[in-house]
Amino acid sequence: EVREEAARALQALHRVLTAPAEEEPAAVVDNAPVSVAGITVAGSNSSTSAVRSDSELFIDPDLAGAPITALHLLNSKQLCQTARSLTTLAKPWCLGAEAVSELGTAVAAAAVTSSSMGPASGWRHWSTLLYGLATAGMRCDSPRSHLSHAFSRGCRVLLSLGMEGAQGIDVANMVYAAGQIKADPTVLRPVVLVVAEALVQGAELPDAKDQTWSNILLGLAK
């Protein structure tokens, strides 16, 4: 009986989160992009401070049409926690696989254009969000899917940050997620190169343990 009540509550929450939001679509940056391997890093006429600001959302013009739902009202921590909950929510007594797939797609769509997922969201929230979607079984079935666009935006944001704020678990989760969701490896490659170059130059990942490194290598192998 408790599980049935919980399931009904979760279904109601699912409807609320995926309903259209009373919010204007996020503004698109209008300055010409500078790209690394096709991934936007910054605007050509932007100052460094402007590039690092969440007001410049790292949103490509062709992504501005992503649906706006109540999920866009969540901050970056709340959005990535929603993604992490998907695996549990997929259990039959919760939402079930079909509803979770729909919710996962909505989370990915929110990550594409939400102002909360700009540079301030950092390595931790982007890697956690993508890891959560990956473990829930989400896949990049098309380069035009919301998940593919979300992964691309995440890589653009992380490229803008370099290794700032990155922990071993963040790198491992990002690489693992890329392998699991079958992301375009050419989109991930610039991020991997930034990490590799930083490590060669002496950067450290203090929290990295044997399992962390094995997860990174496993993700790269996929």
Describe the structure.
The chain is mainly alpha-helical and 222 residues long. It is built from 9 helices and 2 strands, in the order H-E-E-H-H-H-H-H-H-H-H. The chain has one domain (2-221). It has a two-stranded antiparallel sheet with strand order 1-2. A hairpin with a 2-residue loop joins strand 1 and strand 2. Helix 3 runs antiparallel to helix 4 (97-113). The relative contact order is 0.13.
What is the structure about, briefly put?
The chain is mainly alpha-helical and 222 residues long.
Mean pLDDT value: 77
Structural class: mainly alpha
Between the first and last Cα atoms, what is the distance in angstroms? 42 Å
Instruction: Give the number of DSSP strands.
Output: 2
What spatial order of strands do you see in the largest sheet? Answer: 1-2
Principal-axis shape equals globular
Query: Helical content, roughly?
Result: 55-70%
Query: How many structural domains?
Result: 1
Low-confidence stretches: 24-56
Number of helices: 9
The major sheet is characterized as:
2 strands, antiparallel
Query: Strand portion, in percent?
Result: under 5%
How big is the Rg? 17 Å
The string of secondary-structure elements, in order, is HEEHHHHHHHH
What key attributes describe this structure?
single chain; 222 residues; two-stranded antiparallel sheet; globular
